[in-house]
Amino acid sequence: MELPKRLRQGYVFNIEAGKQALTNIKPLRLFSNIEVNPRPDEKNEGAIVVEIILKEFEHKSVDVSTVWNIVHGLVEELPHWYLV
Predict the structure, then answer these.
(1) What CATH number has the domain bearing residue 69?
(2) What is the pLDDT of residues 25-50, one digit of tens each?
(3) Which of 17, 22, 35, 40 could anchor a disulfide with 53, C-beta 3.0 to 4.6 Å?
(4) Domain count of the chain?
(5) How far apart are CA 2 and CA 4, in angstroms?
(6) Which domain, by its residues, includes 34?
């Protein structure tokens, strides 16, 4: 997922673009918590710094086992009910 142009460094901050970006991130279900912390930029008067903190969900694993059997010579015929 790419950050929208309106939220990149050097562009005028747009709160609606920020809300849309969060709306797009949430359905991914990759993060258990998303924090957005805007603060004044100490170096550039009138500018802001927006810090986004993402906390990933705990990683989980699943064990799956399968059993495959191949029976040689078995031919199964299925009736064609629709061809009557």
Answers:
(1) 3.10.20
(2) 889 888 999 998 889 999 988 888 88
(3) 35
(4) 1
(5) 6
(6) 5-83
